[in-house]
Write a structure and sequence with these properties.
- It is a single chain.
- The chain has 489 residues and is α/β, with parallel strands linked by helices.
- 28% of the residues lie in helices and 22% in strands.
- It has 13 helices and 18 strands.
- The strands form three sheets. It has a nine-stranded mixed beta sheet with strand order 9-8-10-11-18-17-16-13-14. The chain has a seven-stranded mixed beta sheet with strand order 2-4-1-5-3-6-7.
- The longest helix has 19 residues.
- The radius of gyration is 27 Å and the shape is elongated.
- The two termini are 40 Å apart.
- The mean pLDDT is 94.
Length: 489
């Protein structure tokens, strides 16, 4: 796509009357040689699928681009390994939507469903069908109407009124996920594998969901004019840290002047924390995590007298803010003795799954004094997580009652997530962020800086139609707080 806002995905739109259209680059040919079906039932020596006319691919690309530009494609998925049957199953599973398909009389249903001839399936609104079919007419490929999404969560395929296939979606999901589940049981934590398999088989879950606080204005990428100089944020990184560009971009969008500050800059005196309003410790893998997540980074500060004094002075100032994300969260958590009001902060240990977790999850913003999360209490938002050591572990049992939590993992209904993978690291109570007693220092395991723009989201509800993503509010809240403290800003 030339514009990522026009991306096409297999996610079916079940909010309007629609039909599924099969674009066949080789028209009615259904060769099974070399296909997955042939590997299972025999026939590998038969002729395989191919692209018979290169012009059909040119025409196909041109038509899909034009239809997409005009907004006439609701969903899209290519036909490849497994053929049409795999394509349609994938669309149904990712969308939690059933399908009803009608095959014309006189054709080989098995070959039609499992031939791996090149093509694609489009979902189009019913009232746009004639426009789509007209755009395909006279091309080197053809377009065939397959059927429609349906409310019953099952895939039914009929031919001349008789069922060729009729399977519940939940059974297909279990079969689809079974091999991965069995492999994970041997390779990873078996309980986590079981919990993920059960979660995948629960078609009642909506997956990602978004609840924005009532009355809270949505953030805007057009930051209000800043009087005088823009607040300065030190985007802090150490060897191996890799999230500085996203962090700088998020603060820049909120009206800050972001400055790249490596620890060597502070050690050499090229940079001084005293000239900054905000310190943002970034995510990544400091020292390759060979010293433990954030430990080497933190010890480089705690055991270097000049750095320890500089960080202590910065945290002590009443007009500064500190944010630690992922690796930066782990690092700042180990500086708790330097940060006023952070005495009860936990450490972060290896994920319960025993694996690095990179996924989108739902979190809820808890009521806390955090400056960064001001006004977002009650919001339930998807966010990126990307860590191997994010499981909360309090240094003393009494700290659990005193640590001020800011975020926790939840499911699509807002219930605390205790099971994997909705809780990706196994933290008790789903906790995944904390703040100091005055709210000036906040640490978060998820990555809000990676999804501050709507374009960065793999999914957003249709009603969220602004360029700014919900998490930009975290960065604008910091700017607003500084503006209130320093009117000249």
């Amino acid at each position: 796509v030339l514009d990522v806002r026009r991306q096409l995905t297999p996610l079916l739109d079940d909010d309007q009357a629609s039909v599924l259209v099969h674009l066949r680059l080789n028209r009615a040919r259904t060769r099974l040689g070399g296909s997955i079906l042939a590997q299972i039932v025999g026939g590998l020596d038969a002729p395989p699928a191919d692209l018979d006319e290169p012009q059909s691919l040119v025409d196909f690309f041109t038509v899909v681009q034009a239809l997409n530009e005009q907004g006439q494609i609701l969903a899209y998925h290519d036909v490849s390994d497994g053929g049409l049957a795999a394509t349609l199953t994938e669309m149904a599973l990712v969308s939690r939507v059933g399908l009803h398909l009608e095959l014309p009389a006189g054709i080989d249903a098995l070959a039609t469903l499992f031939a791996e001839e090149p093509g694609a399936v489009l979902q189009v609104a019913r009232d746009q069908l004639e426009i789509v079919l007209l755009a395909c007419r006279g091309r080197a490929f053809d377009a065939v109407v397959l059927g429609t999404p349906q409310v019953p969560a099952r895939i039914t395929v009929q031919q001349v009124g008789s069922n060729v296939l009729d399977l519940p979606l939940v059974d297909l999901q279990r079969r689809w996920s079974k091999l991965s589940w069995l492999m994970r049981r041997q390779r990873d934590d078996a309980d986590c594998a079981d919990e993920e398999y059960a979660a995948r088989s629960d078609l009642r879950s909506a997956g990602l969901s978004l609840h924005w606080p009532t009355g809270r204005a949505r953030p805007s990428l057009k930051a209000p004019a800043i009087i005088g100089s823009r607040p300065k944020v030190a985007v802090l990184r150490e060897q191996g840290v890799n999230g500085q560009l996203e962090m700088a971009a998020a603060f820049d969008a909120a009206g800050f002047e972001a400055v790249d500050v490596h620890m060597s800059d502070l050690e050499s005196g090229r940079q001084d924390l005293a000239r900054f309003d905000v310190l943002a410790a970034c995510g990544g893998f400091s020292y390759g995590d060979v010293l433990g997540a954030g430990t080497g980074w933190a010890h480089g500060i705690l055991h270097a007298e000049g750095l320890r004094e500089a960080f202590t002075a910065f945290f002590a100032r009443s007009d500064t803010l500190s944010l630690g994300v992922c690796n930066g969260c782990q690092m700042l958590a180990q500086l708790h003795t330097l940060i006023p009001g952070a005495e009860a902060w936990p450490r972060f240990l290896g994920n319960r799954s025993g694996r690095f977790e990179a996924r989108w999850v739902n979190v809820e913003v808890l009521d806390s004094p955090s400056v960064f999360l001001s006004g977002l209490t009650g919001a339930r938002l998807p966010v990126v997580v990307s860590h191997g050591e994010g499981r909360v572990a309090f240094r003393e049992s009494a700290h659990a009652a005193h640590a001020l939590a800011t975020l926790r993992y939840v499911d699509d209904s807002g219930t605390v997530a205790t099971r994997y993978p909705l809780n990706p690291n196994g933290s008790a109570g789903g906790l995944t962020g904390f703040t100091s007693t005055d709210g000036r220092a906040t640490i978060l395991m998820p990555h809000p800086e990676r999804c501050f723009r709507a374009l960065q989201w793999s999914w957003l509800p249709p009603q969220w139609n602004t360029p700014a993503g919900p998490w930009l509010a975290l960065f604008t809240a910091a700017r607003d707080w500084l503006a209130g403290r320093q009117p000249g800003r």
